[in-house]
Design a protein that fits this description.
Length: 449
């Protein structure tokens, strides 16, 4: 468990997290961010000054976000072209969430190209008003089958799937209480926040703490337990069976975010719950079409009545233009491909294991991770950014720095995501570059060094 710093004020922002939650121990959750900027006020507020000062405060802390200007090249992933100062540099991308490289898979790109030619660009409306394409219906049926559920519902992103579903359930179940893992993603937290539901934060992956919190509440009130399967910044995995046991004992619905697991774990890519033999237990399985499935969009799978409820009451599902048919066609092709092919999953796990072993052997402080996510600890925001900049500018290795509030202060890190398409030569380049940067910046080494 990370140490958390005392803060006088908290402010919603960032990803994951972003709501002024407090940890169970009373400390600010990982999703809190202090604000020190005061608005400049005269007769009227100087808005631009306020915006610039706020951003300057981030810069001073070394956590101002700079986007790498990339051109992905189909067929060459994880190699990409980076545009910088009018020049083009070829880089190895080591931080993509296109975890299996499906974003360039011919089955996916082919399906999208064909769908554009056949059906045009946009859906032409909300799902209710002329925007439901046949491929949406097919994709929902495929996702329901993937998760062995009666029904599924697609959204414009995984983020919107979480905000809408959790927000709708929590707001409409009378006097509900939501129990949320302390490390839950911002989209889950925003769903709870939007619903104004009463909530309790249980310590990360701590079923006993969840049990204690639930035991203290009125057994008759509706309850929802919300957690993720793979936590994307540490790469650790939830004790899904234990959390479901506790939820069942207290008559709660379970809501499982499998965004960092679908496509990659379990039979046919059904996720970690399915891999662990408990895929049938969560009332809601939520996933994304934008990571292992390589496209964009999000979804939930569950009972027919629950899905119909969210379809009928979820505002951010109802009042928005449907996903373009070509997007749904690409996602459908990716889901179908990964339901029938283990090659990508096996190679993905092998690559992640290889990278972890190579990092450890080189004495680099790779964090213990039970998944494909490979975090390397730096422990300082400025140094983390500096290390990332050097890797990119000097070695053409792109790993985005992960700083507060995405992770707790003092645990800033490089989050490496090996894919099946990172070959041995790419791994060699990564290890050599990291070794050199660690040496130059005198960064901390692991015990193995
Ligand atoms: N849930 C978790 C745990 C995430 O990490 C993310 C995004 O990274 C999302 C949901 C949102 O998914 P999407 O990128 O499809 O909006």
């Amino acid at each position: 468990m990370f140490a958390r710093q005392a803060q006088e004020r908290i402010w919603p922002k960032g990803e994951p997290g972003g709501v002024p939650d407090r940890g169970a121990d009373g400390s600010p959750g990982r999703n809190c961010e202090p604000i020190s900027v005061k608005p400049t006020v005269g007769a009227f507020m100087d808005y631009d000054r306020f915006f610039a000062d706020s951003v300057d405060a981030l810069r001073a802390e070394g956590r101002y976000r700079v986007f790498a200007d990339l051109e992905r090249v189909a067929g060459q992933f994880p190699r990409a072209r980076r545009h910088v100062n009018g020049q083009v540099q070829t880089v190895d991308v080591w931080c993509s969430n296109d975890y299996l490289g499906m974003g360039q898979h011919p089955a996916v790109t082919g399906a999208m190209t064909e769908a554009i030619a056949a059906h045009g660009a946009g859906a032409g409306g909300t799902r209710n008003i002329s925007g439901t394409a046949h491929v949406h219906v097919q994709l929902e049926a495929e996702l329901a089958a993937l998760h062995s559920r009666e029904a599924a519902l697609i959204f414009t992103s995984g983020y919107i799937a979480n905000v809408t579903t959790l927000g709708t359930l929590a707001a409409r179940l009378p006097a509900a209480i939501v129990y949320s893992d302390g490390y839950n993603h911002n989209s889950l937290i925003e769903g709870m926040r939007w619903s104004r539901v009463e909530k309790r934060i249980f310590r990360h992956n701590d079923a006993a703490h969840l049990d204690a919190l639930m035991a203290a509440d009125d057994p008759a009130r509706p309850k929802i337990v919300v957690f993720e399967s793979v936590y994307s910044m540490d790469g650790d995995i939830a004790p899904i069976a234990d959390l479901c046991d506790v939820a069942d004992r207290h008559g709660a619905l379970t809501y499982l975010d499998e965004v960092h697991a679908v496509g990659m774990y379990g039979p046919g890519g059904a996720g970690v719950a399915a891999r662990d033999g408990v895929g049938h237990r969560p009332a809601v399985i939520q996933g994304t079409l934008g990571k292992a499935f390589g496209v964009v969009g999000g979804y939930i799978a569950g009972s027919a009545s629950l899905i119909d409820f969210v379809r009928s009451f979820g505002n951010a599902f109802i009042f928005t233009t449907a996903l373009p048919p070509a997007i749904a066609a690409g996602a459908l092709a990716a889901v179908r491909h990964l339901r029938n092919s283990d090659v990508e999953r096996e190679r993905h796990q092998e690559r992640a294991t290889t990278v972890k072993q190579r990092l450890a052997a080189a004495g680099l402080p790779v964090m213990n991770s039970a998944s494909h996510i490979v975090p390397v600890m730096v422990g300082d925001a400025r140094l983390c950014k500096l290390a990332s900049d050097r890797l990119l500018d000097h070695f053409g290795i792109y790993v985005q720095p992960i700083n507060y509030p995405t992770v707790a202060r003092g645990t800033e890190r490089l989050r490496i995501t090996p894919t099946p398409l990172h070959d041995d030569a790419a791994v060699d380049r990564l290890i050599a570059a990291l070794g050199s940067v660690w040496e130059d910046l005198k960064l901390g080494r692991s015990q193995a060094a």
